[in-house]
Design a protein that fits this description.
The chain has a domain at 76-173. It is built from 1 helix and 9 strands. The protein has one helix spanning 5-18, and strands at 44-45, 51-56, 70-82, 98-102, 105-111, 120-125, 131-135, 142-147, 156-162.
């Protein structure tokens, strides 16, 4: 199905904005140096590579056996958060502050109090122990993840990290709109 030109133009503009300014596009004017308004930090969301190319190698020969090294692309599965680089001895996995299981799957939220050195995250992949790690921005104090409920193991559908006061609450924690208060019953008079 061919989309109308207007829709294609809007989609192309949105894609260009999402990926940053293109090399040929004019640079927007810089904010004045005297400006006291700090730009809101962008939330980090769904940034894990969808696939991780991994080469698995047997590191020692086993008498009587022929080793077979493996290479493949493994799918993104879940995120994890640490109070330091994941390989450091003191960097223990941070468990979610809130975990909610609904009909659509599992939902996790991490409240990350400010700390010197900030936090790190890893992206884990199915059928391999290989991961990728990244240091989160110093001001990140909140992360959330929604897992797909159709799988036996945890598979992330969507995740994001940022400054809690600037991020919308998770969809599963939003309350239903307030119902208007019922009017009191009419008073009986004689």
């Amino acid at each position: 199905m061919r989309l109308p030109a207007v829709v294609r133009s809007v989609l192309a503009t949105a894609a260009a904005l999402a990926s940053g300014l293109s090399a040929g596009a004019p640079t927007p004017p810089a904010a004045p140096a005297a400006s006291k308004v700090a730009a809101a930090p962008a939330a980090l969301a769904d940034a894990c590579p969808a696939q991780l190319p991994v080469r698995q190698t047997v590191t020692a020969a086993i008498p009587g056996w022929t080793t077979q090294d493996q290479q493949g692309n493994y799918p993104f599965q879940r995120v994890a958060f640490y109070p330091g680089p994941p390989g450091d001895p003191g960097a223990m996995l941070i468990v979610p502050t809130v975990e909610y299981k609904g009909q659509s799957g599992l939902h996790d939220r991490w409240d990350l109090p400010r700390r010197v050195g900030g936090y790190w995250m890893t992206c884990a992949y199915g059928n391999t122990t290989a991961t990728v790690a990244r240091k989160l921005a110093e001001d990140v104090d909140f992360c959330q993840a929604d897992y797909d409920g159709r799988f036996i193991t945890l598979v992330v559908r969507h995740w994001s990290c940022g400054v809690k006061r600037l991020m919308p609450p998770p969809v599963w924690s939003r309350t239903a709109p307030a119902q208007p208060a019922k009017a009191p019953p009419p008073r009986r008079t004689r």
